[in-house]
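Thanks for the sequence, V.! I ran YggT family protein right away. Repeating your input here for the record:
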Amino acid sequence: MFGDILRFLLEIGFTLYGAAFILRAWMQAARVHPFNPLTRGIAQATNWLVIPLRRVVPGFGGVDWASVVGAWLTGLVYTLLLVAASGIGVLAALPVSLGVAALLVLKWTLNLIVWVTLIQAIMSWINPQAPAMGLLYALTAPILDPVRRILPRMGGLDLSPLVVIILAQVALMIVARMSYALLLA
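Predicted structure:
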């Protein structure tokens, strides 16, 4: 029972921290204003790792690769902690853990896409004038706009969030299958 509680707490903590690194990269790619309170909070929580990583991993192509590497390192530490807690040799599991960490980052990214899209869709129905809508729109527009170009509005109803959520869930299933296959290898 204690092991289950420990694994649960590790999963929550590392998932939230990994998501912070991914959200930092996403907000920079979406050009969210740096003085946004959420942007500043995430920057303060992740600066300790991102700033030193930027000396080694430069950003290019509009992507903050130091934040992406920070998310991957978070996934790697989480994976190695789980391996150590299970009694398996950490060095023996290191090669597989590198791939599992990359798949964890992909999983966290897809989960963020689902949650941010869902929150944006619900907020657009409840209170489209809310202060957070600018941030949510800036984050979701690059994902929803290509779907909106393909899928026409149906009587004022925007189905693009539903399509994005379904596609992200399908991608999550594929990532779960890949993780399972990697662990069996």
